[in-house]
UniProtKB/TrEMBL annotation:
Source organism superkingdom: Bacteria
Name the record gives this protein: VanZ like family protein
Keywords for this protein: Membrane, Transmembrane, Transmembrane helix
InterPro entries noted in UniProt: Teicoplanin_resist-assoc, VanZ-like
Spans traversing the lipid bilayer: 12-30, 36-58, 70-90, 137-155, 162-180, 200-219
Source species: Sporolactobacillus nakayamae
Entry annotated with the keyword Transmembrane: yes
Annotated ranges, domain VanZ-like: 108-211
Length: 235
């Protein structure tokens, strides 16, 4: 039974990836086949292949049971796809400008920050503005919170393991962002403050999971109380 569900998991991921590819193809058809749109579509396929392989690796041991879990899994996969595009997706226009037009002048020292809270202090000092800095901080905190909830929901791991996994995952993202800028001119940087904020978001994921467990227990208790009443009414 386990192998069936694991194969079903792979099929769900495959169907999602095919649906995304067809969606982008329809968009390209409506806009017309121009050179740039074709290149953009090929870049989307490249990003989609990379995302699918990474997502398969992360979720390879997850077992899906029932329609509700399948729908939740699909919802998370959509979230993961959007997060992947925002954090690691390759922008063809920037790659083109970097390779052929040489419009990017890069200072590699400015691409790396390993001093905790330096970026946060700089942002709240008024650059570019406190409002923008606040939005960026909130975004970094909540971006991986759904991933934490997903790990707890499907993986049945401990809270300590969730903190460790999110920390390592966030650190890997920062390294890959640096490499994407180094190799593909993606205007990204490696910042330890992002790792700190992403890891802090684990608390939100844990709170959401604890709330879900409490709500599920309350619903089960309510169903148990209702069942005897309905049985007595039937008699």
């Amino acid at each position: 039974m386990k192998n069936y569900f694991e194969m079903k998991n792979i099929r769900v991921i495959g169907l999602f990836s095919v649906a995304i590819a067809l969606f982008y193809l329809i968009v390209i058809l409506t806009e017309g086949f121009y050179r740039y749109t074709i290149i953009e579509y090929l870049a989307t396929l490249f990003n989609l292949i990379m995302f699918t392989l990474i997502f398969l690796f992360i979720t390879r041991k997850i077992v899906i049971r029932g329609i509700s879990q399948m729908l939740f899994f699909l919802a998370f996969q959509l979230y993961a796809w959007i997060a992947f595009l925002l954090l690691l997706g390759i922008d063809v226009q920037q790659l083109w400008f970097g390779l052929f037009d040489h419009q990017f002048e890069r200072n590699f020292l400015s691409m790396i920050n390993v001093i905790p809270f330096r970026t946060l202090i700089t942002q709240f000092s008024g650059f570019p503005s406190v409002n923008i800095a606040t939005h960026q901080i909130i975004g970094n905190i909540i971006v991986l919170a759904p991933f934490c909830f997903f790990l707890l929901y499907f993986g049945r791991i401990t809270f300590k393991s969730a903190f460790l996994i999110i920390f390592l995952y966030s650190l890997s993202i920062e390294v890959l962002q640096f490499l994407s800028d180094l190799l593909f001119f993606q205007a990204r940087a490696m910042d330890i403050d992002d790792v700190i904020l992403n890891t802090a978001g684990v608390a939100l994921g844990i709170l959401a999971y604890v709330f879900y467990l409490g709500l599920a227990a309350l619903c089960r208790r309510f169903v148990r109380k209702e069942s005897p009443i309905k049985g007595n009414e039937a008699n």
